[in-house]
TrEMBL record:
The lineage of its organism: Bacteria, Pseudomonadati, Bacteroidota, Bacteroidia, Bacteroidales. It catalyses: sn-glycerol 3-phosphate + NADP(+) = dihydroxyacetone phosphate + NADPH + H(+). This is Glycerol-3-phosphate dehydrogenase. It comes from Porphyromonas somerae. Belongs to the NAD-dependent glycerol-3-phosphate dehydrogenase family. InterPro entries: 6-PGluconate_DH-like_C_sf, 6PGD_dom2, G3P_DH_NAD-dep, G3P_DH_NAD-dep_C, G3P_DH_NAD-dep_N, NAD(P)-bd_dom_sf. The active site is at K203.
Amino acid sequence: MPEQTSSFPGRVGILGGGSWATALAKIVLSRQPKLNWLLRTSTHVKDFKRLRHNPGYLTSVTFDTDRITFFTDSDVNDFFRACDTVILATPSPYIRYYLKRVRNSVIRNKLVINAIKGMVPEENVLISDYLQEYKELRPGQIGVIAGPCHAEEIAKDRMSYLTVGCFDMAKAKVLSEEIFSNDYVHCAVSRDVVGIEYAAVLKNIYAIAAGICHGMNKGDNFQSVLISNAIAEMSNFVSTVHLVSRDVTESVYLGDLLVTAYSSYSRNRTFGNMIGKGYSVRAAQMEMNMIAEGYYGAKCIHEINQRYQVTMPICSAVYNILYEGAPVEQSIDRLSTLFK
Protein backbone atom coordinates (compact mmCIF):
# COMPACT_ATOMS: atom_id res chain seq x y z
CA MET A 1 0.00 0.00 0.00
CA PRO A 2 2.39 2.72 -1.23
CA GLU A 3 0.47 5.77 0.00
CA GLN A 4 0.21 4.53 3.60
CA THR A 5 3.49 2.79 4.41
CA SER A 6 5.12 5.69 6.26
CA SER A 7 2.21 6.25 8.64
CA PHE A 8 0.58 2.84 8.64
CA PRO A 9 -2.00 2.10 10.03
CA GLY A 10 -2.90 5.77 9.60
CA ARG A 11 -6.44 6.97 10.19
CA VAL A 12 -8.62 4.12 11.45
CA GLY A 13 -12.34 3.76 10.79
CA ILE A 14 -15.09 1.33 11.79
CA LEU A 15 -18.12 0.60 9.62
CA GLY A 16 -21.02 -0.69 11.72
CA GLY A 17 -22.96 0.31 14.81
CA GLY A 18 -23.75 -2.93 16.66
CA SER A 19 -22.26 -4.51 19.76
CA TRP A 20 -19.18 -5.97 18.02
CA ALA A 21 -18.46 -2.67 16.26
CA THR A 22 -18.81 -0.89 19.61
CA ALA A 23 -16.42 -3.31 21.31
CA LEU A 24 -13.91 -2.83 18.51
CA ALA A 25 -14.24 0.93 18.84
CA LYS A 26 -13.41 0.64 22.52
CA ILE A 27 -10.33 -1.44 21.70
CA VAL A 28 -9.16 0.90 18.93
CA LEU A 29 -9.57 4.02 21.06
CA SER A 30 -7.49 2.43 23.81
CA ARG A 31 -4.55 2.60 21.37
CA GLN A 32 -5.38 5.28 18.79
CA PRO A 33 -5.98 8.99 19.40
CA LYS A 34 -8.87 9.31 16.93
CA LEU A 35 -11.49 7.16 15.25
CA ASN A 36 -13.77 7.55 12.25
CA TRP A 37 -17.05 5.71 12.81
CA LEU A 38 -19.89 5.13 10.36
CA LEU A 39 -23.32 4.59 11.94
CA ARG A 40 -26.56 4.12 10.08
CA THR A 41 -28.50 7.33 10.69
CA SER A 42 -28.06 10.92 11.84
CA THR A 43 -30.45 10.17 14.71
CA HIS A 44 -28.13 7.40 15.89
CA VAL A 45 -25.19 9.82 15.74
CA LYS A 46 -27.11 12.56 17.56
CA ASP A 47 -28.16 10.22 20.37
CA PHE A 48 -24.63 8.82 20.64
CA LYS A 49 -23.14 12.31 21.04
CA ARG A 50 -25.76 13.31 23.61
CA LEU A 51 -25.44 10.15 25.70
CA ARG A 52 -21.70 9.58 25.06
CA HIS A 53 -22.41 5.90 24.52
CA ASN A 54 -23.98 3.78 21.81
CA PRO A 55 -27.71 4.10 22.55
CA GLY A 56 -28.52 0.59 21.33
CA TYR A 57 -25.53 -1.59 22.24
CA LEU A 58 -23.05 -1.96 25.11
CA THR A 59 -24.55 1.07 26.81
CA SER A 60 -22.18 0.70 29.79
CA VAL A 61 -19.23 1.66 27.58
CA THR A 62 -18.75 5.43 27.53
CA PHE A 63 -16.76 7.24 24.85
CA ASP A 64 -14.97 10.55 24.54
CA THR A 65 -16.94 11.61 21.49
CA ASP A 66 -14.51 14.48 20.85
CA ARG A 67 -12.11 11.78 19.64
CA ILE A 68 -14.68 10.34 17.19
CA THR A 69 -15.65 11.69 13.78
CA PHE A 70 -19.05 10.24 12.95
CA PHE A 71 -20.40 9.46 9.49
CA THR A 72 -23.74 8.04 8.33
CA ASP A 73 -24.95 5.79 5.51
CA SER A 74 -25.16 8.65 3.08
CA ASP A 75 -21.50 9.54 3.76
CA VAL A 76 -19.98 6.14 2.98
CA ASN A 77 -17.58 7.42 0.31
CA ASP A 78 -16.55 10.35 2.53
CA PHE A 79 -15.97 7.87 5.34
CA PHE A 80 -13.61 5.76 3.24
CA ARG A 81 -11.79 8.86 2.03
CA ALA A 82 -11.20 9.88 5.64
CA CYS A 83 -9.64 6.50 6.54
CA ASP A 84 -6.45 4.64 5.74
CA THR A 85 -7.47 1.45 7.58
CA VAL A 86 -11.14 0.42 7.63
CA ILE A 87 -12.63 -2.27 9.90
CA LEU A 88 -15.82 -3.83 8.51
CA ALA A 89 -18.09 -4.73 11.43
CA THR A 90 -21.62 -4.63 10.09
CA PRO A 91 -23.76 -7.82 9.95
CA SER A 92 -23.01 -9.84 6.82
CA PRO A 93 -26.45 -9.37 5.18
CA TYR A 94 -25.73 -5.61 4.99
CA ILE A 95 -22.10 -5.51 3.86
CA ARG A 96 -22.89 -5.76 0.16
CA TYR A 97 -25.19 -2.73 0.49
CA TYR A 98 -22.27 -0.63 1.74
CA LEU A 99 -19.49 -1.95 -0.46
CA LYS A 100 -21.52 -1.66 -3.67
CA ARG A 101 -21.87 2.06 -2.97
CA VAL A 102 -18.16 2.63 -2.33
CA ARG A 103 -16.42 3.72 -5.51
CA ASN A 104 -13.42 1.58 -6.39
CA SER A 105 -11.34 4.72 -6.84
CA VAL A 106 -12.07 5.65 -3.22
CA ILE A 107 -11.24 2.27 -1.66
CA ARG A 108 -8.28 1.50 -3.95
CA ASN A 109 -5.44 2.40 -1.54
CA LYS A 110 -7.07 1.41 1.75
CA LEU A 111 -6.35 -1.52 4.04
CA VAL A 112 -9.67 -3.23 4.75
CA ILE A 113 -10.02 -5.55 7.75
CA ASN A 114 -12.93 -7.96 7.88
CA ALA A 115 -14.40 -8.27 11.38
CA ILE A 116 -17.63 -9.84 10.09
CA LYS A 117 -18.35 -13.42 11.21
CA GLY A 118 -20.08 -14.21 7.94
CA MET A 119 -19.97 -14.15 4.15
CA VAL A 120 -21.58 -12.06 1.42
CA PRO A 121 -24.87 -14.00 1.19
CA GLU A 122 -25.85 -12.94 -2.33
CA GLU A 123 -22.59 -14.09 -3.90
CA ASN A 124 -21.70 -16.88 -1.42
CA VAL A 125 -18.17 -15.55 -1.19
CA LEU A 126 -15.86 -14.61 1.66
CA ILE A 127 -15.48 -10.90 2.37
CA SER A 128 -11.82 -11.11 1.29
CA ASP A 129 -12.83 -12.65 -2.05
CA TYR A 130 -15.52 -10.01 -2.56
CA LEU A 131 -13.00 -7.22 -1.91
CA GLN A 132 -10.60 -8.68 -4.45
CA GLU A 133 -13.15 -9.52 -7.13
CA TYR A 134 -15.55 -6.59 -6.92
CA LYS A 135 -13.51 -3.79 -5.30
CA GLU A 136 -10.22 -4.70 -7.03
CA LEU A 137 -8.13 -4.74 -3.85
CA ARG A 138 -4.82 -6.58 -3.80
CA PRO A 139 -4.36 -9.42 -1.27
CA GLY A 140 -1.92 -7.29 0.75
CA GLN A 141 -4.68 -4.73 1.32
CA ILE A 142 -6.97 -7.22 3.07
CA GLY A 143 -7.04 -8.50 6.62
CA VAL A 144 -9.33 -10.29 9.05
CA ILE A 145 -9.81 -10.06 12.81
CA ALA A 146 -11.44 -12.87 14.80
CA GLY A 147 -11.13 -15.00 17.92
CA PRO A 148 -12.86 -15.79 21.24
CA CYS A 149 -13.81 -12.23 22.09
CA HIS A 150 -17.43 -11.53 23.04
CA ALA A 151 -18.35 -7.86 22.85
CA GLU A 152 -20.02 -8.04 26.27
CA GLU A 153 -16.76 -9.17 27.87
CA ILE A 154 -14.77 -6.42 26.14
CA ALA A 155 -17.25 -4.01 27.74
CA LYS A 156 -16.17 -5.38 31.14
CA ASP A 157 -12.43 -5.33 30.35
CA ARG A 158 -12.27 -9.11 30.65
CA MET A 159 -9.25 -10.86 29.17
CA SER A 160 -9.93 -11.68 25.53
CA TYR A 161 -8.00 -13.08 22.59
CA LEU A 162 -7.94 -11.99 18.98
CA THR A 163 -5.96 -12.97 15.91
CA VAL A 164 -5.35 -10.56 13.09
CA GLY A 165 -4.79 -12.26 9.77
CA CYS A 166 -3.27 -10.53 6.80
CA PHE A 167 -1.70 -11.68 3.56
CA ASP A 168 1.05 -9.17 4.43
CA MET A 169 2.53 -10.31 7.77
CA ALA A 170 4.37 -7.05 8.35
CA LYS A 171 1.03 -5.25 8.33
CA ALA A 172 -0.51 -7.93 10.56
CA LYS A 173 2.15 -7.30 13.20
CA VAL A 174 1.62 -3.54 13.12
CA LEU A 175 -2.15 -3.97 13.37
CA SER A 176 -1.74 -6.33 16.31
CA GLU A 177 0.61 -4.03 18.21
CA GLU A 178 -0.87 -0.63 17.41
CA ILE A 179 -4.62 -1.25 17.13
CA PHE A 180 -5.84 -4.51 18.64
CA SER A 181 -3.64 -5.23 21.68
CA ASN A 182 -4.12 -3.61 25.08
CA ASP A 183 -4.18 -4.52 28.78
CA TYR A 184 -7.09 -6.93 28.38
CA VAL A 185 -6.83 -8.01 24.72
CA HIS A 186 -4.05 -10.32 23.54
CA CYS A 187 -3.68 -10.28 19.75
CA ALA A 188 -1.79 -12.89 17.73
CA VAL A 189 -0.99 -12.75 14.01
CA SER A 190 -1.55 -15.15 11.12
CA ARG A 191 -1.30 -15.42 7.33
CA ASP A 192 -4.38 -17.65 7.18
CA VAL A 193 -6.93 -15.02 6.12
CA VAL A 194 -9.12 -17.49 4.21
CA GLY A 195 -9.04 -20.17 6.90
CA ILE A 196 -9.90 -17.69 9.65
CA GLU A 197 -12.80 -16.31 7.62
CA TYR A 198 -14.23 -19.77 6.95
CA ALA A 199 -13.74 -20.82 10.58
CA ALA A 200 -15.63 -17.71 11.73
CA VAL A 201 -18.56 -18.66 9.50
CA LEU A 202 -18.53 -22.34 10.49
CA LYS A 203 -18.33 -21.81 14.25
CA ASN A 204 -21.62 -19.90 14.13
CA ILE A 205 -23.32 -22.83 12.39
CA TYR A 206 -21.95 -25.22 15.01
CA ALA A 207 -23.12 -22.86 17.76
CA ILE A 208 -26.64 -23.07 16.37
CA ALA A 209 -26.35 -26.87 16.53
CA ALA A 210 -25.15 -26.61 20.13
CA GLY A 211 -28.05 -24.33 20.97
CA ILE A 212 -30.54 -26.70 19.37
CA CYS A 213 -29.18 -29.58 21.45
CA HIS A 214 -29.27 -27.47 24.60
CA GLY A 215 -32.89 -26.55 23.92
CA MET A 216 -33.64 -30.27 23.55
CA ASN A 217 -31.91 -31.03 26.89
CA LYS A 218 -29.42 -33.36 25.25
CA GLY A 219 -26.96 -32.85 28.10
CA ASP A 220 -23.31 -31.95 28.54
CA ASN A 221 -21.92 -35.30 27.41
CA PHE A 222 -23.65 -34.97 24.06
CA GLN A 223 -22.52 -31.35 23.71
CA SER A 224 -18.89 -32.32 24.23
CA VAL A 225 -19.08 -34.94 21.49
CA LEU A 226 -20.93 -32.54 19.20
CA ILE A 227 -18.18 -29.93 19.51
CA SER A 228 -15.33 -32.43 19.15
CA ASN A 229 -16.94 -33.61 15.92
CA ALA A 230 -17.53 -29.99 14.87
CA ILE A 231 -13.85 -29.06 15.07
CA ALA A 232 -12.97 -32.14 13.02
CA GLU A 233 -15.61 -31.18 10.44
CA MET A 234 -14.30 -27.61 10.38
CA SER A 235 -10.75 -28.81 9.88
CA ASN A 236 -11.74 -31.10 7.00
CA PHE A 237 -13.67 -28.40 5.19
CA VAL A 238 -11.14 -25.59 5.62
CA SER A 239 -8.25 -27.86 4.61
CA THR A 240 -10.16 -28.84 1.47
CA VAL A 241 -10.99 -25.31 0.36
CA HIS A 242 -7.70 -23.73 1.47
CA LEU A 243 -4.85 -26.14 2.09
CA VAL A 244 -2.22 -24.36 4.18
CA SER A 245 -0.41 -25.30 7.37
CA ARG A 246 -2.63 -24.41 10.35
CA ASP A 247 -3.30 -25.68 13.87
CA VAL A 248 -7.05 -25.78 14.44
CA THR A 249 -6.52 -25.98 18.20
CA GLU A 250 -5.40 -22.33 18.17
CA SER A 251 -7.75 -19.83 19.76
CA VAL A 252 -8.93 -18.28 16.49
CA TYR A 253 -10.33 -21.68 15.40
CA LEU A 254 -11.14 -23.94 18.37
CA GLY A 255 -11.28 -21.18 20.98
CA ASP A 256 -13.79 -19.13 19.01
CA LEU A 257 -15.85 -22.25 18.36
CA LEU A 258 -15.96 -23.15 22.06
CA VAL A 259 -16.98 -19.72 23.32
CA THR A 260 -19.63 -19.32 20.62
CA ALA A 261 -21.07 -22.78 21.27
CA TYR A 262 -21.17 -22.51 25.08
CA SER A 263 -21.53 -18.86 26.06
CA SER A 264 -24.84 -17.32 27.06
CA TYR A 265 -23.69 -14.20 25.16
CA SER A 266 -23.73 -16.12 21.87
CA ARG A 267 -26.54 -15.04 19.55
CA ASN A 268 -26.17 -18.17 17.47
CA ARG A 269 -26.43 -20.46 20.48
CA THR A 270 -29.46 -18.48 21.69
CA PHE A 271 -31.08 -18.77 18.26
CA GLY A 272 -30.45 -22.52 18.17
CA ASN A 273 -31.74 -22.91 21.71
CA MET A 274 -35.07 -21.45 20.62
CA ILE A 275 -35.24 -23.83 17.67
CA GLY A 276 -34.52 -26.75 20.01
CA LYS A 277 -37.35 -25.63 22.30
CA GLY A 278 -39.82 -25.69 19.42
CA TYR A 279 -39.76 -22.16 18.01
CA SER A 280 -40.09 -21.79 14.27
CA VAL A 281 -37.17 -20.14 12.51
CA ARG A 282 -39.21 -17.02 11.88
CA ALA A 283 -40.46 -16.82 15.47
CA ALA A 284 -36.92 -17.22 16.83
CA GLN A 285 -35.62 -14.47 14.55
CA MET A 286 -38.41 -12.10 15.54
CA GLU A 287 -38.01 -12.70 19.27
CA MET A 288 -34.24 -12.23 19.18
CA ASN A 289 -34.46 -9.00 17.19
CA MET A 290 -30.75 -9.51 16.46
CA ILE A 291 -28.94 -11.23 13.63
CA ALA A 292 -27.63 -14.75 14.14
CA GLU A 293 -24.92 -14.94 11.49
CA GLY A 294 -25.01 -18.74 11.45
CA TYR A 295 -28.47 -18.68 9.86
CA TYR A 296 -27.02 -17.07 6.72
CA GLY A 297 -23.75 -18.98 7.00
CA ALA A 298 -25.55 -22.34 6.94
CA LYS A 299 -26.97 -21.60 3.49
CA CYS A 300 -23.70 -20.19 2.16
CA ILE A 301 -21.65 -23.18 3.30
CA HIS A 302 -24.27 -25.64 2.04
CA GLU A 303 -24.18 -24.12 -1.43
CA ILE A 304 -20.38 -23.77 -1.52
CA ASN A 305 -20.01 -27.39 -0.47
CA GLN A 306 -21.97 -28.52 -3.50
CA ARG A 307 -18.69 -27.91 -5.31
CA TYR A 308 -16.33 -29.48 -2.78
CA GLN A 309 -18.49 -32.36 -1.50
CA VAL A 310 -16.87 -32.46 1.96
CA THR A 311 -18.73 -34.71 4.40
CA MET A 312 -20.30 -32.22 6.82
CA PRO A 313 -23.13 -33.88 8.76
CA ILE A 314 -23.47 -31.14 11.40
CA CYS A 315 -23.66 -28.30 8.89
CA SER A 316 -26.04 -30.34 6.77
CA ALA A 317 -28.31 -31.02 9.73
CA VAL A 318 -28.45 -27.33 10.64
CA TYR A 319 -29.15 -26.35 7.04
CA ASN A 320 -31.93 -28.92 6.70
CA ILE A 321 -33.56 -27.79 9.94
CA LEU A 322 -33.37 -24.06 9.11
CA TYR A 323 -34.10 -24.13 5.38
CA GLU A 324 -35.78 -27.42 4.52
CA GLY A 325 -38.07 -27.72 7.54
CA ALA A 326 -36.51 -31.01 8.64
CA PRO A 327 -37.88 -32.27 11.99
CA VAL A 328 -35.50 -31.16 14.73
CA GLU A 329 -35.56 -34.27 16.91
CA GLN A 330 -35.25 -36.65 14.00
CA SER A 331 -32.35 -34.64 12.53
CA ILE A 332 -30.40 -34.55 15.80
CA ASP A 333 -31.06 -38.23 16.51
CA ARG A 334 -29.76 -39.14 13.06
CA LEU A 335 -26.73 -36.95 13.64
CA SER A 336 -25.98 -38.61 16.96
CA THR A 337 -25.56 -42.00 15.29
CA LEU A 338 -22.63 -40.61 13.26
CA PHE A 339 -20.65 -39.34 16.24
CA LYS A 340 -17.70 -41.17 17.72
